[in-house]
Amino acid sequence: MNIDILVILGIAIFCGFFVQTLIGFAGSLISLPILLLAVKLPDAIAFISIFYLFSSAFMVHKEWQNIDKTTILRLTLTSVIGVILGIAVLTYSKPVILQTGLGIFILLYVFYVWVGKTELVLGRKTNWAFGVMGGFFSGVFSTGGPLYVISVKNSVQEAKSIRATMIGILALVTLIRIPALSISGVLKLQHLKLSLIILPIFFLAQFLGTKLFPKVNEAQFKKILLFLLTLSD
C-alpha cells in the first residue's frame, strides 16, 4: 500500500474518530467517504472496525458510569441478528440501494424532529426493529449509529448519557462485527498491520475529542447530533 493511501487512511481516521469521541457516534459516517477515495468498501469497513475496537477499549472504561445498561441489554440480541445479516450482504452482494434507503429514512426523521411539535416515541416492537436495522447497517456500511441514536434518544435524555450509551452500543456491535468480518474473509492481517501505523493519529483524535466534549452544552450537543444525522444520508 503506497504512501498516498496511508495519508488518506490517516486523515479519515483522525476526522472520524475525533467526531466519534466528541459525540459518541459518527466515526464511520465521517471516515467512510474519505476512505472510499482510496480503498474498496470491504477494506474501508475492515479499517473502521479495527479502530472502533481500539476506541471501544478506551471509551467504555472511561464512560462506564454514564452508560444506560438497560438500553444496551435491550439492543444486544437485535444487534447480533442485524450485524450477521449485514455482513452476509456485504460479503455476497452490492448493497448500494440499501445505503440510499437508509439516507432517505434518516432525512425524514431529522425533518420530523425539526418541524414536529411532539417527540417521536418508539414502541417496544419499533425499538427492536431499530436495533436490528442498526446492527444490519453496522455490518454493511459501519453506519448503524444514526439508527441507534434514534432508539437511544427515546430512552435516554441527558447529553452525557446519550453519548456514553452510544459508545457502549457501538462497542458491543464492534465485538460482534470483528470476528464476523474475520470469518467472512473481509478482515485480514494486512488491515491490522496498516492500522498500527496510523495508531498515533487515532490517539491524537481521541485526546482532542475528549478534551473538547466538556465545552459542549446540552443544546449544542443535540444540534450536532441532528446535523450529523443529516450528513448520514
What can you tell me about this protein's structure?
Helix content is 81%, strand content 0%. 44% of the residues are buried. The mean pLDDT is 80. The longest helix is centred in the last third of the chain and has 26 residues, at 159-184. The chain has one domain (3-231). It is mainly alpha-helical and 233 residues long.
- Which structural class fits the helix and strand makeup? mainly alpha
- Integer tally of domains: 1
Using only CA atoms, what is the Rg?
Answer: 16 Å
By DSSP, the count of extended strands is 0
Helix proportion range: over 70%
What is the first-to-last residue Cα distance? Answer: 30 Å
- Give the uncertain stretches in residue-range form: none
Task: Count every helix, treating DSSP H or I runs of 4 or more residues as helices.
Answer: 10
Question: Largest sheet at a glance?
Answer: none
Topology:
Blueprint: H1 3-23, H2 27-35, H3 41-63, H4 69-92, H5 96-115, H6 124-141, H7 145-153, H8 159-184, H9 189-212, H10 218-231
Helix pairs in contact: 1-2, 1-3, 1-9, 2-3, 3-8, 3-9, 4-6, 4-8, 5-10, 6-7, 7-8
